[in-house]
Design goal:
- The protein has about 90 residues and is mostly helical.
- The protein has a domain at about 5-65.
- The protein contains two helices and two strands.
- It has helices at about 5-30, 35-60; strands at about 75-80, 90.
- The chain has a two-stranded antiparallel ribbon with strand order 1-2.
- The longest helix is centred in the middle third of the chain and has 27 residues, at about 35-60.
- The radius of gyration is 17 Å and the shape is elongated.
- It holds the Pfam family Coat_F.
Length: about 90
């Protein structure tokens, strides 16, 4: 099975989100300033990579980047009641 460029880029993007989340968690748990600063630098590089991937995918019309809606507030709740989506919040864009 061969994957398309679009599928590969989507997979890379999902994986960079996972790596960034783990860097962030490590920063919060780091007691050593030198280690913490290194993890922050690595996370910032990962965030920049994510932005480059999104820009590339957007340029190729593989994803839609919607503008923020300032009238909807900062956070929007997704889902109702209980279950995995009950406490999931997402930005309005």
């Amino acid at each position: 099975m061969q994957f398309s460029d679009r599928e590969i880029m989507a997979d890379v993007f999902v994986n960079t989100k996972y790596v960034s989340a783990n860097y962030h968690r490590a920063v919060l748990e780091s007691a050593n300033d030198r280690v913490r600063d290194t993890l922050i630098q690595l996370n910032n590089e990962e965030i920049n990579l994510q932005k480059q991937i999104i820009n590339l995918m957007h340029d190729r019309n593989w994803c839609e980047v919607r503008p923020a809606n300032s009238s909807s507030g900062l956070w929007q709740a997704k889902g109702q009641g209980r279950g995995p989506d009950a406490m999931h919040y997402q930005m309005p864009y």
